[in-house]
Amino acid sequence: ERLAAEVSSDVVPGQRVRLPERPEWGLGQVQSVAGDRITVNFEHAGKITLRGDAVHRLTVEDER
Question: With bands split at pLDDT 50, 70 and 90, how would you rate the model's confidence at 44?
């Protein structure tokens, strides 16, 4: 439950992210955050739903 709160506050829809252990998926955009699940649309893998234990490994891309 605590992880879900951390995920919700750290990752928000619209953010651009990468999953370091899956570089082939490319850049992704967060579509939704629901509890401990996050749905990301990756440029080379499509829409993927990640569990909370994977979400903390996402890296947020600088929007500049």
Answer: very high
pTM of the predicted model over 0.85:
no
Alpha-carbon distance of 22 to 26, in angstroms, equals 8
Instruction: For residue 61, give Cα distances in angstroms to 4, 15, 17, 58.
Output: 21, 8, 5, 9
Cα(6)–Cα(43) distance, integer angstroms: 25
Residue pair 14/60 in contact (Cβ under 8 Å)? The answer is: no
- 5 Cβ contact partners less than 8 Å away, ≥ 6 residues apart: none
9-30 tens-digit pLDDT: 578 899 999 888 899 999 999 9
Contact 26, 16 (CB under 8 A): no
